[in-house]
UniProtKB/TrEMBL annotation:
The lineage of its organism: Archaea, Methanobacteriati, Methanobacteriota, Stenosarchaea group, Halobacteria. Gene3D superfamilies: PAC-like subunit. InterPro entries: Proteasome_assmbl_chaperone_2 (IPR019151), PSMG2_sf (IPR038389). This is 3-isopropylmalate dehydratase. It comes from Halorubrum kocurii JCM 14978.
Length: 246
């Protein structure tokens, strides 16, 4: 007997106000660099929660802070800043990434969002010279936002899951999509990788974010994310939620 639609995983976005033109997103993946980076943006920019993404039909988590539960995928913004930040603490397997991306993209299209920037770490073998940020971006996003000298392109490969689906939609639509990626190590969170991502997004959008305190911030959230990293490794034994080659 086939599953009913109610039994199938689904995502939906709820937002309390008009979103900004730009969405910056970080999802739960190996190394947690992107997630740590967007979490730090929320703290450093003093953003307030303005929405969330509801996940139905898949194992979930309920994070909490100072004794108060929170949604696992949250949206943050501020009235005087034209940026909305998505913090995705819930690990979404790559096979369900398209469902999450579609829900986000349907919302961004209806809300008039023009750009999406994703911060992500990739667990690939690398030497010291690769300790920098790279990009994969649609033509329109590249033309508006990316300097190849500062943030070089990834040479070849592929992205899957949520990041790959976001990029694919951006190819044939007016939505500009850029994924900023940096190599990560096994520790969670990889603070050095998160610093690189924060510095890159700050240079891209002139946010005025100081990344210097990020190392201590990462130490403060390390315990919170260690359990999350263990869950990811259990569900992704090969250690990669974004498959990409340099």
């Amino acid at each position: 007997m086939p599953d009913s639609p109610r039994d199938r995983p689904s995502f939906s976005v709820t937002h309390e106000s008009d979103p900004s033109d730009v969405l910056i997103a970080g999802f739960s993946s190996f190394g947690l660099a992107g997630l740590t980076a967007v979490d730090y943006l929320v703290e450093n920019l003093d953003l307030e929660q303005t929405g969330y993404v509801r996940a139905e039909g898949l194992p979930s988590i309920t994070p909490f802070k100072k004794g108060r539960p929170r949604r696992p995928i949250r949206l943050y913004s501020r009235d005087d800043l034209d940026v909305t930040v998505l913090v995705g603490e819930l690990f979404v397997p790559p096979v369900l990434g398209e469902l999450l991306a579609t829900a986000v993209l349907d919302w961004t299209e209806s809300a008039g969002v023009t750009e999406i920037a994703v911060l992500s770490g990739v667990p690939i073998p690398h030497g010291p010279d690769a300790h920098r940020t790279f990009h994969v971006a649609t033509d329109d996003y590249h033309e508006r936002r990316v300097d190849d000298e500062l943030v070089p392109p990834m040479e070849s490969g592929f992205l899957d899951g949520t990041n790959g689906s976001l990029l694919e939609r951006g190819i044939d639509s007016p939505l500009g999509v850029g994924v900023f990626v940096t190599p990560v190590h096994a520790q969670a969170p990889d603070a050095d990788a998160a610093v690189r991502l924060v510095d890159t997004i700050d240079e891209t959008y002139a946010l005025g974010v100081d990344s210097a305190p990020l190392a201590s911030f990462a130490a403060d959230v390390r315990r919170h994310y260690e359990d999350l990293a263990e869950r990811i490794e259990e569900r992704e034994p090969d250690g990669a939620s974004d498959r990409m080659y340099m």
